[in-house]
Fold these 4 entries.
Entry 1:
Amino acid sequence: MVRTASTMLPLGTAAPDFKLPECGGGEVSLADVSGGKALLVIFMCNHCPYVKHVADHIKSLADEYIAKGVSVVAISSNDADKYPDDNPEAMQKEKSERGYAFPYLFDGDQSVAQAYHAACTPDFFLFDGQAKLVYRGQLDSSRPKSDQPVTGKDLRAALDAVLAGEKPSENQTPSLGCNIKWKEGNEPQYFNPQGTA
C-alpha cells in the first residue's frame, strides 16, 4: 500500500465521460447518472483499509443525498488480477452486504480513473447540475486508527452547498488512501509511487 493523496483535478472540469459494466450486470454511463441536482463519483474498492474505515458512512451518506436528488456512482479501478478481492464478483458481494443503493462499476482498463486523475481509494469527485467539478477532497479528517470519528463533514458541506445553489468553498483538503493499483504499464503521469502524503 502506498499512502496517496488526491491529485486535486482543477475545479470547473467537466465530468469525463464513461460507460462501464456494473458489478451486478448491465452497463452504466455518465449520461445515465447525470441530469440530477449533483453527481458524486467515488473511486473506491473492497480491500483498502481507508475505504473499509468509511464504507458504512458512504452507504448512509449516499442514501441520504440520493433522496435529495443527488446521483451517486462508485467505480473500482484496481488491477483485479493482482487484487482478486476487488474483482466484479467480490464487488457484487460487497455491494449486497453493505446495501449500497448506487451503481458500483468496474473500470477494467483503468481508463476512467486516468480520465478523472483518480489517485487513491477513496477519492471523491462532486459535480454540480451542469456536470462541472465543484469539490474534490476528503470525506472528513478521520483515518484508520485515528481518534477522529467518521462524520463526512467536508463532503456533506460541499453537497449541502450545491443543493442550496451555492459553490462549495474552494479551500478543500485532499482525500487520502491507498493508491489505485495500476496494471503494469498503466501508471499515469501523475502517479507517485513514493506516495504524496
Note: The radius of gyration is 15 Å.
Entry 2:
Amino acid sequence: MDLRIATIAERPAMKSRFVNEEAEPWPAFMNEDPIAWLYFSDVRIAHPEYGLIAYDADAPDQAVARAFCVPFAWDGNPALGELPVDGWDGVIWRSARDRQIGQKPNLVSALEITVPTDLQGTGLSGKMLAAMRDNVKRLGFKDLVAPVRPNRKHLVPDMPIEEYAALVREDGMPRDSWLRVHVRAGGRIVGTCKRAMVIPGTLDEWRSWTGLPFDESGPVVVPGALVPVQCSVEHDYAVYVEPAVWVHHRL
C-alpha cells in the first residue's frame, strides 16, 4: 500500500467512513454517545486541521484509517495527570465551549484512531499516531493527551481500570497492545478516568444496540464494553459509563 495521510482541511470532500461498513471495529452502542454527536456533526467546520484521513495513493477516494483530536483550554499540568475527570466527553464539550466563548486552546486531546478490522495488526495504528503527533506539533502545541480506550479491557469488564492500566509484561511495557503503541511512540501513562464516556438509553434502545434482553436490574456484561452496563428495569433505562487511561505525549 502506498499510504498517504492528509488532514480533513486538505481533503474536505473525502469521507472518513470505510467503504466496507462491516470493517468498522466499534460496537454499535459506541455510536450512541450524545457528546459524540456534538463533535462529529461539526468536525469538518470547526476542526478540519485536527482530523486525519489515511488512504492508498492507488485508491485516493477510499479511507483506510482515520484519526481525530480536538484542542481545548486547560489549566492543569498534563504531565502530572491533571486532566479532565470526564475524559473523552469532557474534552469534546470543553473544545466546543472554548470555541463559542473565544477561549484560546493550549492543549490537544486525541479522540480516536480507527483502523478497519481487516487492516488491524499491520502497524497502521502506530503510523496514524505518529502522524497525529506530528500534526499537533505542526499546529503549534507542545502536548498531546489521549483518554485511551484499552483494546483488551473488554475481556475483563469487572477489573478496575486502575488495576488494568498497571498491568505490564516482563519487559515493563503495558500488557494492553493499544497502550503499548502509545508508550512506544513516546507517550506516558499518567492516570485514569472512570467517567470518560457516558451512554444512556432506554431498555428498548439498549436491546436494539446489543441484542441482549436487558430484563433484569443490575450490571449487564455487554460484548465490547469495558465495564458492565448498569440496568434499571424499574425505571426503564440503562447507563454505560466507560473508563479510560490518560496518556501524555510531550511533543
Note: DSSP finds seven helices and nine strands in the chain.
Entry 3:
Amino acid sequence: MKFYLGTHQPSWLTRMPGVPLMLSHRRLASMRRLPIAVTRWALDSGGFTELSLHGGWTTDPVVYGIAVRRYQQEIGNLDWAAPQDWMCEPHMLRRTGLSVGEHQRLTFQNYLRLREQGVPVIPVLQGWRLADYLHCVDLYGKAGVDLTAVPLVGVGSVCRRQHTGEIAEITSTLADQGLALHGFGVKTSGLGRYGDALASADSMAWSLRGRYLPGCTPSHKSESNCLTFALIWRSRLLQEVGQR
C-alpha cells in the first residue's frame, strides 16, 4: 500500500524525497510561485472544507482543471488529483440540502468533466451504506467507465467512521470487485481494520495529534506543523501496519 502523508506545508514537497505527500488545492491555489517537487504527491480538492463552508462548490470545474494542470506542469511529480466530489455524511447532506443520490451524481459528473479536460483525476465513489457505494459503481459503469481498468478509485465519506465494521465491509466488497482503492483520511485504526483492501491511503492525523503537544523547539507552539514530528508519526504508523 502506498501511503501519502498529508500536510499543510507546500515547501515539504521540496524537502522529502521518497515520502509521498498529499496537499490540498485550497493551500496551493493562492500561491504565485509554486514549489518544485522532489517526491511524488497527490492533490486533494478540499471538498470537505468547501462544502462545509458554502454548502456546495464555489470553484468552477474549468478553473479547477486549469489549476490542476498548472500544478502538474510547474510542481511536477503529481500522481493524481481528486475530483470536486460531494461527501455523503449526514451532516453534510443537511448542509447542502441534497440527497445521497444527488451527491453521487454531482461527483460522477465532475469526474467526467475533469477527465474531458485532460486532468489526471481519479474517480471517487461516494455513499453512506454499502448499497450506496455499489450503486455508485453502477453509475460509472452505465456511462462506460470501467472502474477495474483505472489505476485508482477513491472511497469517500469514510474518514470519520473508521472504527466501524461497516467501513471494512464496504472496502473489502469493493476491492473484491477488482477495484484499486484509495482511502481518504485514513487513521491508524482504519488501516488496522481495512488496510489490506487499499492500494493507497492518506492521512493528516499526525497534525491533529500534534496540535495538543508542546513544540519541540522554541519556535514551535505545538507539533501540528512540525516536519520532524510528522516523519516520526509516519514511521511509527507504517511499522504498525507492517509496511516498509
Note: The beta strands are 2-6, 21-24, 41-44, 78-81, 124-125, 153-155, 181-183, 200-203.
Entry 4:
Amino acid sequence: MLQLTAARASAAGSPASIRRLVDICPALPVTLLDGPPADRERWCPGDALAARAESLVAAEAARIEAAHGTAPRPHVAASRLLHHYLWSLCLLTAGPWYLDGRAARIAPGALWIEESTGDLALLADLPEDGPHGPDGLRTAVAAHAGPVLGAFQPYVRRGPHALWGMVTDDLVSALWYLGRTLGEEDRAVTAASVLLPGGTPPFSGAAAFRRLPGTEGRRHWTRTRQGCCLYYAVRPDEACTTCPRTPDGERVRRLES
C-alpha cells in the first residue's frame, strides 16, 4: 500500500460514518470536500480515469522509483495505483456499512485522485440512501469499480476475472483492516465472509478466511489473495502476508513478531 498520511475529515454535512471512518483509519489518504477540487490539472475525478490513466500511471511509477530506488515496469505501476484506488474505494463504501449498517453510495465523479501524490478527495455531499444489506453493498462497489477497471485494464495487462479478483481482495482487505483497527478482528472476518461467500459475480471469489495455527496454542486469521497486487515486484523480499508466494510458516513469523 502507498505510504500516505490520512487527512482529517473537515467538510461540514458529510455523513457521520464517513467522517468517523476517515478519522479512525490512518491508512486512508482521503480529504472530504464540499465541492470539486479547484486545481483540475492536478486532480482527476474517477469518471475521467480513462482519459488520464497514462499520466496517472507515470506519476505512480515516479513515486515508486523515488521511494524504492528502482523504476517499476509500467504494468507494475498501474497495478499498484489501481490497488490503492480500489482499496480506498472499498473502505469508503463498505466502512460505513460495517460501522453503522448502511453502505456509502459513491459515484465515480465524487472520488478524485491527485496525480502527483496519489492522495484522494471525496465530495462530502453523498446520497443518504445507501444500501443496508450485502447485496446492495456489492452493487454499490461494483457500480463504481467497473468503469475504473475498464480504464486501467490496458495498462495492468490482466483480464476481467483477475481484475474482479483484485476488487474482491481489496473489499475483504478493507473490512479486515477496519476490524483490526477497532480491535474486533473476529467481527470483521464474519462480516467479510457474509458479504463475499462466493458465487456473487462480478466478484470472482469468496473471502475464504482460515485459521492459521501459531506458537503456544495461538491461532491467527489468514487468507490467500486471489490475485497478486505486485508489491513483491517493488520490494522482492517483502511479499504481502496474504500473497500466494508467502508460506504459512512465514505468515506465522510475521504475525507473531
Note: Residues 74-100 form the longest helix (27 residues).
